[in-house]
Amino acid sequence: QVQLQESGPGLVNPSETLSLTCNVSGDSISSRNDYWGWIRQPPGKGLEWIGSIYYNGHTYYNPSLKSRVTISVDTSKNHFSLRLSSVTAADTAVYYCARREGNYRGYNWFDPWGQGTLVTVSS
Amino acid sequence: QLTQTPSSLSASVGDRVTITCRASQSISTHLNWYQQKPGKAPKFLMYAASSLQSGVPSRFSGSGSGTDFSLTISSLQPEDFATYYCQQSYIIPWTFGQGTKVEIK
């Protein structure tokens, strides 16, 4: 059973770079035709997809964040990472990592999810 | 863009509850549903508008295609009180509805 776990600083200064890692256990990150992604949720608000990556490094980003986002993968460590630059208070959120699973009919969904990690942007 | 209605509702155990999700353009049947409880990550319920994820109770059902979709809980159980989100997987950026909070009456 695949499990995902986010890790990284819980507090980031404004204008600096947010960095998080998602460790994948129970399966190899490169063993399936799945993408791996990041989704965030500001306190009391809804969900926003940030971006996703394939094990070969191919990425999709949300255009609203694309200029500030970098997602990378390290198959040797079975983890993938998020970097979000020039953060402001608006980037304060719970950040989730998730597998984007799919089937042969072209449908895809996010499952499973990590437990999430709260990142606060404040000086 | 996905718009869910209502944004919240109050219901009793045993009630039938329906949540709707409207897309701003056709997304065929590329619509997923998630359940989120306070302090927890979303839980995947359903894909392709009406296909239940393994292990999800059969009291949950979904329907719709194109721009109009719905999630129905046939008989609300205590563990179903949560916030529900729809999500489209047809067009990048993948987007979520704003959520519908199902509360105890």
Short description:
Chain A has 123 residues and is mostly beta strands.
What is the quaternary state of this protein?
heterodimer
Radius of gyration of chain A: 14 Å
The helicity of chain B comes to under 10%
Evaluate the radius of gyration of chain B. 13 Å
Question: What is the overall silhouette of chain A?
Answer: globular
Please describe the biggest sheet of chain B, giving its number of strands, its sense, and whether it closes into a barrel. Answer: 7 strands, mixed
Structural class of chain B: mainly beta
Q: Given the structure, what is the number of helices of chain B?
A: 0
Low-confidence stretches of chain B: none
Q: Main beta sheet of chain A: strand number and arrangement?
A: 7 strands, mixed
The residue fraction in helices of chain A comes out at under 10%
Please tell me what the overall shape of chain B is. Answer: globular
Poorly predicted tracts of residues of chain A: none
Q: What is the element string of chain A, with H for helices and E for strands?
A: EEEEEEEEEEE
Biggest interface: A-B, 21 and 24 residues
- Written as H for each helix and E for each strand, in order along the chain, the element string of chain B is EEEEEEEEEEE
Total strands of chain A: the figure is: 11
Straight-line N-to-C gap of chain A: 39 Å
Structural summary, described in words:
The complex is a heterodimer of chains A (123) and B (105). Chain A is mostly beta strands. Helices cover 0% and strands 52% of the residues of chain A. Chain A is built from no helices and 11 strands. In chain A, the strands form 2 sheets. In chain A, strands 2, 4, 5, 6, 9, 10 and 11 form a 7-stranded mixed sheet that branches. Chain A has a 4-stranded antiparallel sheet with strand order 1-3-8-7, with no helix packed on it. Chain A is globular and about 45 Å long. In chain A, 37% of the residues are buried. The model of chain A has no long low-confidence stretch (mean pLDDT 96). Chain B is mainly β. Chain B is globular and about 35 Å long. Chain B has no helices and 11 strands. Classes of the chains: A mainly beta (123), B mainly beta (105). The A-B interface holds A 46-49, 60, 62-64, 96, 105-116 and B 29-30, 32, 34, 40-44, 47-48, 51, 53, 85, 87, 89, 92-99.
